[in-house]
Amino acid sequence: MGKLLRWAAIGLLVLAAIVATVWAYLRFVSPPVVELTQEQIMASLGPRFPLRNCTAVGACIELSEPALRLVEGSERIDISTRFDANLGEIQVPGRLAFSGKLRYVASEGSFYFDDLEVSQLDLEGVPPFMARMLRERGIAGVTAQLQNTPIYTFDTESRRERLAMMLLGDVRVQEGRLRIQFLRPAD
């Protein structure tokens, strides 16, 4: 019986040492990080397209074929898409490029765009008055829809990503990846 107690005490001491080592590493060395590549984000974003926004008068704008670009050191993410406006009998194809800052919704484990800025809208074969109307009115509905469409949602089946959902600290683009850093235990 004495040997069993001694081994149990040694086991508890070893377990306590492991827990203390992990805590010290997380607290003093480096907080854990999840890195998402452009490809991983695109794999999550791609199925959410096409996005379609229609008005009461029957005009519809559809965004499809998204391409994402992470810009080193930037807090913004760039996306370009195919742009198709259907104005009754008139079809207007083009390209739309925009960027946005990430907003994280912890309860969903999802990232959304905020502060969207349209950097380019190229329309093919459109009279100037119609191009102006699409820029002024059509883009507003599309950007509102984009801000309500998650660009990435953590995988709740992954223990590492579930932990990231709870302890998210900092998000930035570094070395061509979206770098999600956890909070340290004492933060």
TrEMBL record:
Superkingdom to which the source organism belongs: Bacteria
UniProt-listed Pfam families: DUF1439
InterPro entries given for it?
DUF1439
Q: What is this protein called?
A: Uncharacterized protein DUF1439
